[in-house]
Amino acid sequence: MSEESESVEEQPEAEAAGETSETSAPETPTTSDTQTTSESKKEAEQARLSKTFRLIPGEDVLLTKRPSVFAFIPMYIVGILSLGIHFLFNRAGSMASDNFALDLLYAAMDLDFNETLPIGFVFTMILLAWLNRLLNVSTSGRWVTVYLLIVAITPIIIQIDYVVSLIAGDSYDELIPIDYSYTLFGMLYFAIFMGLTYYYQRSFHYAITSDAVIFEHSFLLSRSHRRILFDRISEVLVERTPIGTLVGFATVTILTDSGVGIVEENTGSSIPNSIPGTQENANDSNVEKAGKGIIRSVLGLLTYQRTIRTVRPDPKHCMYNIQNWEKAKLLLNEMHKKNSQSHLLSDLKKTMEASTKD
Q1: pTM score, two decimals?
Q2: Are residues 215 and 197 in the same domain?
Q3: Do the domain assignments include residue 130?
Q4: CA–CA distance from 83 to each of 88, 93, 138, 145, 274 (Å)?
Q5: Quick check: is 159 in a domain?
Q6: What is the number of structural domains in the chain?
Q7: Which of 29, 97, 101, 215 would be a feasible disulfide site paired with 33, CB 3.0-4.6 Å?
Q8: Are 306 and 270 in contact (CB under 8 A)?
């Protein structure tokens, strides 16, 4: 009885020791577990991208791109220019020289209204906004223009209660009891513009899927989504700016038969017909009509420009300044060849030739 009891008591101890040894040994992941984890990650990523780009069932994302970090350098330059103008006008009153022209310029910059409204600063910022809009470059968008105009009119808004106080008299209390500080507001607007520019840069997202090319854009309250099927593509263009060549990015533009990617610019001038006094009236004599006609002709020749159709990169409708653009272009060409009618006809021809030989 005693031997049996000892054997029974030793068995649980051995089992406990075995369990301890099994649990203490580290488990090494097998190849199948690694593959399963990798596949689950890919499925989760595909599900996320499918929601982002609004894919149809059965469609897979092959490549995604965003604009390069250096894609919107001109916008950062606009922000720096705005900050520089603030700093310049902050020192305008203390700058002096022996040159009469420079002293006159400094006096014009320091021009204000009753030492309250900086007229020179407001005029300069409006001029910068107008020139930026007129050049029609990558920084000529609506929100950049609105930003520059807001910066320009901020001193007016801050000091508008001063004008009201002049009219209302001493009984009026100031609504905005602060003065416009070039340094403070310049740095504040610079920080806001840098943040908005980075947010704007990250608002563009491009994808090449198994069925189409998708351009997604979401900025503030603006939303756009464009989907181009591969068989609609007629040409793939690559444009590299000097900055893009240095830092390694390029713009890949897709042209279609319907004209997507091509813009029509009317560069002709309407100045001659808009100048007061050059329109012909019923009471004009022949000499007056001839004089007005000569003026319009001369101004028309001096300002004439033709209407052209050109490719203008729009971040909403092209892969704007992307890194590794060679991979994107190669994939676009491959998918276009796979889905184009010429490829289908070539496959049909090979099938017919094979059946004929059989």
Answers
A1: 0.66
A2: no
A3: yes
A4: 9, 17, 19, 15, 36
A5: yes
A6: 3
A7: 29
A8: no
Q: Is the pLDDT of residue 104 over 70?
A: no
Q: Quickly tell me which residue has 């030793």 as its tokens.
A: 10
The pLDDT tens digits for 134-185 are 877 777 778 888 999 999 988 888 777 666 666 766 665 666 667 778 889 9
Distance between CA atoms of residues 143 and 146, nearest Å: 5
Phi, psi at 297, each rounded to 5°:
-65, -45
Domain span at residue 286 reads: 271-303
Residues 257 and 141 in one domain: no
Q: Decide: residue 254, CB within 10 A, 0-12 exposed, 13-18 middle, 19+ buried.
A: buried
Tell me, yes or no, whether 209 and 338 share the same domain. Answer: yes
Is 179 a member of any domain?
yes
- Which of 151, 176, 201 is the C-terminal boundary of a domain? 201
Instruction: Please give the C-alpha separations between residue 121 and each of 95, 134, 151, 244, 303, in angstroms, as whole numbers.
Output: 15, 20, 10, 34, 31
E-only strand ranges, 105-193: 112-113, 117-118
Tokens found for residue 196: 């908005």
118, amino acid identity: P
Q: What's the pLDDT at 10?
A: 43
Does 33 map to a domain?
no
Question: In the structure encoding, which two tokens stand for residue 24, read together?
Answer: 């203490």
pLDDT tens column, 288-332: 777 777 776 666 655 555 555 566 778 888 899 999 999 999 999
Give 22-67 pLDDT, tens digit per residue.
444 455 556 666 777 877 888 888 888 888 888 888 888 899 999 9
